[in-house]
Amino acid sequence: MNVLQNFKIKLILIVLLICSTTNLKAHNPNTLCSNSHQFKWFCDLCGCSTSSGSFGFGTLSNANFVGVRYIYQSFESKAGIFTNSPTSTEKFNTIQLWAQVPINDNFYVTANVPYQDLSRKLESETENLNGLGDVSAIGWYKLMFYKKKKDSTTIDYNLTKEASGHSIQFGIGVKLPTGKFEERLTDNVNPGFQVGTGSVDGIFSVGYNYGSDKIGVNTLFSYYLKGENKNDYQFGNQFSYSANVYTVFAREKMNIMPFIGLSGDVYDSIKQYDETLQDTDGSILNASLGSELAIDKFIFGASYTLPVSQNLFGDNVESQQRFSLYVNYAI
């Protein structure tokens, strides 16, 4: 725990340093959800097979940012088919330094540097893992749609296009094997109990967004092509999806943006030495609710997620709950 606390302090200092040396633009809370609004639920890729790819890698506001996010997940694993079979409880604590940085009007990059603190409680002992997780980065192209002119017979000397609120995003990225992978842990019922995967993975995403000053609808579909690590171990490829609806309550100096959503993941089977491991695939569907508060340049957010249905690792692993908290500084 002392290691985790020291890391938290260092992480906060890094964020403050970045914020103080960055050319920050004015961030008006009353324009957070304009028609050019983006709401991106990108993969957090914390390096664990059972971690949902539909966690999100963006905020409800359209601001570019640098910030810190905390994610908590809990699982219960059962080593056997009987009601009295041994069980273990896994708790995943992740602290992320994350950012969205613009390249130009149509291109931007998102990045994620996670730190993992994992614990697994057995009947007679508790095991802990902590360390740097797998770093990821995604490059995005945003295709904006604009409103048509109401009267095409007259000449409009105003060349400024009016955004319709609709947009499509295309993303390609990579996850790097910066987190430690331990082969001894692959015998666990939950093979996702790892700080990292030890592999280079590809990320391919497409999303549709609609946003106005009052409401918004967002969808994202992502496919993660998992590589094989040096231990000849390969986590199964993963398909993630999400759909969210939010509304905006604008105030003089702040915006409050509650949202609800559905998200899910489908996992292919794990392979080792080119052989498919039994009961290592699965799927999960989640329901989420949360809210975001934007005050000046600061963005605070929270979300809570519960599974609606799931079948993970032959029903031997059960996802129980997860929640996240974050604070960002708009740039």
Question: What would you note in describing this structure?
Answer:
This protein is mostly beta strands and 331 residues long. The protein has one domain (2-149, 181-330): Lipocalin (Beta Barrel), CATH 2.40.128. Helices cover 6% and strands 52% of the residues. The protein has one helix spanning 2-21, and strands spanning 65-78, 87-102, 107-121, 126-132, 136-146, 163-175, 201-211, 215-225, 233-234, 238-247, 249-250, 254-267, 271-272, 275-276, 282-295, 298-312, 317-330. A twelve-stranded antiparallel beta barrel has the order 1-2-3-5-6-7-8-10-12-15-16-17. A three-stranded antiparallel beta sheet has the order 9-13-14, with no helix packed on it. The protein is elongated and about 75 Å long.
Sum this structure up briefly.
6% of the residues lie in helices and 52% in strands. It is mainly β.
CATH class: Mainly Beta
Mean pLDDT: 82
What integer value in Å does the Rg equal? 21 Å
Structural class of the secondary structure composition? Answer: mainly beta
- Reported by name, the CATH topology is Lipocalin
